[in-house]
């Protein structure tokens, strides 16, 4: 029944209690030592470490494009985790009247909204200087931020959860960062009246 010619390439035999995809995942977990260098296992370990930081609420994690870029620029990211098919684009935009340059990270869907390409205060159209996939930009620039770049897939259960639930980009930080300090303060000038607090 079993072809003996295959015997020489068998690394490990494990018993699983499930069939289908769950059985496959269990077989991979049981064979983790044997398959230590296989990317799928490394990916699962990496994302599990990311989820562990979140579950323990250490503050040493970041996710979402803008927050991750903020932490990268601070040098706080130790391991940058990016979904290999991330569909976010990095736009370098220039205000033609003032000459100011700004960077925006937009999905193709967001890029359809013309308001992203106009100055909020003056309404002047912003000229696109450069448009690059964020995956390509990070692959070229990550060393400048002193971090390790890891690409992941959505093929494993953990990878799929990372892509769907955390936007497919995030990182494990060297130290805890409170990102609320970096959020732009909204102007509530007319919203609250001083008499409300007396």
Could you walk me through the main structural features you see in this protein, from its secondary elements to its overall organization?
The chain is of the alpha+beta class. Helix content is 30%, strand content 22%. The protein is built from six helices and seven strands, in the order ααβαβββαβαβαβ. It has a four-stranded mixed β-sheet with strand order 1-7-2-6, with helices on both faces. The chain has a three-stranded antiparallel β-sheet with strand order 4-3-5. α2 (39-55) packs across α6 (157-166).
Regions with little confidence, pLDDT below 50 for 5+ residues: 185-198
CA-to-CA gap between the ends? Answer: 86 Å
Helix run count: 6
Taking the sheet with the most strands, its summary is: 4 strands, mixed
Quaternary status:
single chain
- Round the mean pLDDT to the nearest integer and report it: 86
Supply Rg.
23 Å
Spatial ordering of strands, largest sheet: 1-7-2-6
Strand content: 15-25%
* Structural class based on helices, strands and sheet pairing: alpha+beta
Order of helices and strands: HHEHEEEHEHEHE
Shape: elongated
Instruction: Write down how many β-strands occur, each being a DSSP E stretch of 2 or more residues.
Output: 7
Overall helicity: 25-40%
List the helices and strands and how they pair.
Elements: H1 20-30, H2 39-55, E1 61-63, H3 65-74, E2 77-83, E3 88-95, E4 101-107, H4 108-111, E5 126-133, H5 134-141, E6 148-152, H6 157-166, E7 169-173
Parallel strand pairs: 2-6
Antiparallel strand pairs: 1-7, 2-7, 3-4, 3-5
Helix pairs in contact: 2-6
């Amino acid at each position: 029944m079993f072809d003996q010619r295959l015997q020489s390439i068998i690394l490990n035999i494990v018993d699983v209690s499930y069939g289908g995809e769950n059985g496959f995942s269990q077989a991979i977990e049981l064979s983790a030592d044997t398959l230590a260098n296989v990317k799928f296992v490394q990916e699962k370990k990496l994302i599990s470490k990311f989820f562990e930081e979140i579950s323990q609420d250490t503050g040493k994690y970041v996710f979402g494009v803008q927050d991750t870029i903020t932490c990268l620029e601070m040098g706080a990211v130790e391991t940058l985790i990016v979904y290999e098919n991330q569909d976010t684009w990095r736009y370098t935009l220039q205000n033609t009247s003032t000459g100011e340059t700004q960077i925006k990270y937009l999905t193709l869907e967001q890029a359809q909204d013309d308001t992203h390409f106009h100055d909020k205060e003056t309404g002047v159209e912003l000229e696109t200087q450069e448009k690059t996939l964020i995956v390509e930009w990070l692959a070229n620039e990550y060393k400048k931020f002193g971090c390790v770049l890891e690409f992941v897939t959505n093929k494993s259960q953990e990878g799929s959860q990372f892509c769907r639930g955390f936007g497919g980009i995030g990182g494990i930080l060297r130290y805890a960062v409170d990102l609320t300090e970096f959020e732009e303060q909204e102007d509530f000038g007319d919203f609250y009246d001083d008499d409300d607090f007396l």
